[in-house]
Every structure is written in C-alpha cells, then in structure tokens.
Amino acid sequence: MSQAQRLLLIAPSTLTRTPAFERAGALAKAMQMPLHIVAFDYLQALAVAGLFAPEQMNRARDGYLQNHRQWLTEQAGLISQHGVQVTSEVVWVQHPYEEIMHFVSEMPLALIIKDAQEESALQRIFFAPLDWQLLRDCPVPVHLVTNALNPRPRNILAIVDVLRDEEQDNVFNDQIINAAVKLANECDAHLELMHVYDWAAIYVQDMGFGALPLATGIYEALGTTQREVFAAMAERHGVPPEYRHFIEGNPVLSICEFAAEHRTDIIVMGTVQHKGLNKLLGTTAEQLLQRAPCSVLAIKPGRVLQS
C-alpha cells in the first residue's frame, strides 16, 4: 500500500451516511490527506446458514457485500468531489478490531475516525465495545464523532492535566496541545486550552473522608503552583491568555458545561491505560468520554497527529 499518511474512516455496517462521513471528508481536505473508508460486515444468520448450505450462503454473502461496496463507492465519490483522494472497501469479518489493527500495521495512518453511539434522551455517549477497545488499545489517535453540525470543526477544546509534574506527564500534555494546535491551524478553527483543578477531591484522596481539613491551605497553594505551570505551558505553545482556562471545580461538569456553552466541536484529550488493570482511563477522563456533549479526539502517549 502507499506510504502516504492517510485517514481511516470506519463506516457503519448499515447503508447510512452518518456524521463521521462529513467529518472525515472535511478533515481529509483540511489536512490534505487521502481518505480510506472501510465497512465491516457480518451477519450471524448467514454464518449459521452456511453450516447447512454453504453454496447458498456464499452467494447471499457475495450479493450482500456487492450491494454494500456499490453504496460505499458512491459515498466515496461524493467526498472526492471536494478534491479529496478517497478509496473504499467492505470486509466480511466478525471481529473488526483485529482487522483494524491490520490497517494500522499496513497503512501509515494519521487518524482513525468513527461514529460514536449516542443516546440523545440522556444527552450522553454510550460507547460500543469496539469504541472502548480503540480508545484503550489502538496506538493511532481516535476521533469519535457524535454529530457533524460543523463538518470542518470551528471550535476545539484541548484538555490537559497539570496536577502531576513527572516529566512523562509534561511530555504527554505537550503532545495533546500540539495535536490540538495542529488541528486548529489546519481547520482554521478557534482553540481553547483548559485545566480543571479540584483541590477538594485531591485532599479527600490523600487524607480520607474522616480527616479534618487542616491542610486546606496547602492544597490551595498547590493550586497556585499548578496555575503557574498551566500558564507556562500555554505560553510555550502560543495560546493567548484569553483562551486559557484554569478552573477550580468538578472536572467533568466544568468541561462539559464549557463545551456546551462555547459550542465546542471537538474535545482533544489524552487517554492512557493503567498498568495491571483492564481499565481505559482515570475516573475523570472515563466519565468525560461518557458525558462529553461533543465529539472527542483521543491522543495516546507518544502519538500525535501527522501533517
């Protein structure tokens, strides 16, 4: 396959033009990268029928795949009309994640784009098992799309965590901001940078619920130190003071409220997997992924958006 950096859009198995199509086309044009679209098909009923009538099942499967390929080719053609190089394919596979990892190993991917499952009645995102698997284990940045009100994003919010001062955390924060800045520049979008400092929660974690709040002043001083670290980080990346937001309060609520009020299109955040645990993130990040009012771009340590 070509060694040119490209975007990978994971299309749904249904013949539906979802918001991820619009976002993928807009990002491919803005980032000046080719786009490859793949859909994964698998019908359990056909697989079971194949045990008893393999020839009939093969014909039914081939017809089903051909219909999907034709539809996907038409969608690729619509995107290519905007000057984007687009290819597409349909793969019959029961477990898509392993197939996606083949794409990761064979294609130099800059970004994987996929629709996220959304439950509008509760105004929150319910990620399917594949979504969580990509967020947890995929080494390539993953963009989960909830809507395409602005296919080419206009407002981007980068979230960093400056509560810890280990060198690896500072490097990861730089990677998150770099990815957000690059995306904002390519899309001519507005960028905001945020950290939410919840000193009360840190105190409870360190001292326990039964301890008296004797160390309140210490944690307030820690907050002042982290504010300075945040300001220096923003300065280093050229984020103007008016676009820096160091907020004290509940992280999840504060970020979601800000994103809703400022019509954020994409939240750029970091995801890591805890060693020894089959978990995706820390509590705050995991809750944010479930409750974010907009699309999410997840960055992994050591991986940034390419251009």
From TrEMBL:
Q: Does the keyword Cytoplasm apply?
A: yes
Gene3D superfamilies according to UniProt: 3.40.50.12370
In its UniProt entry, what is this protein called?
A: Universal stress protein
Provide the species name: Pseudomonas shahriarae
Q: SUPFAM superfamilies annotated for this entry?
A: Adenine nucleotide alpha hydrolases-like
The source's domain of life comes to Bacteria
What does the function comment of this entry state?
Required for resistance to DNA-damaging agents.
UspA domain span: 17-145, 175-300
- Of which family is this protein a member? Belongs to the universal stress protein A family.
Alphabetized, the UniProt keywords read: Cytoplasm
Q: Where in the cell is it found?
A: Cytoplasm
User: Does Cytoplasm show up as a keyword for this record?
Assistant: yes
